[in-house]
Amino acid sequence: MGFDEGWISILMDCVSTVSYSVILNGSVGDIFHPSRGLRQGDPISPYLFLICGEGLSSLLRQQSSGIGYKIARGAPSVSHLFFADDSVIFGEASTRGASVLRDVLTDYEL
């Protein structure tokens, strides 16, 4: 998506340097690090979802066939819906539709 390497580094530091400790009877235990994921309720999570979701949204909008659903003749095609931290992608239930979606997700992964 064209983000500066410095910006990417700052974001990665925010999500990869998570550590926990437990306070038990007023004593702080040793620090430990989770093996993966963001903390639930992490304040940066909605922003990361928006940034990443915008990239995927753009790729889905660029795809003209195999992805999307028209609710009525003349209505605009709806290819995806994002809400909170959920995503729904609409497409053809066919080998071609699956191939198109796979190609979009492969581009998104890059």
UniProtKB/TrEMBL annotation:
PANTHER family: NON-LTR RETROLELEMENT REVERSE TRANSCRIPTASE-LIKE PROTEIN-RELATED, RNA-DIRECTED DNA POLYMERASE
InterPro entries linked to this entry: DNA/RNA_pol_sf, Retrotransposon-Effector_Assoc, RT_dom
Organism, scientific name: Hibiscus trionum (Flower of an hour)
Protein name: Reverse transcriptase domain-containing protein
Reverse transcriptase domain: residues covered: 1-110
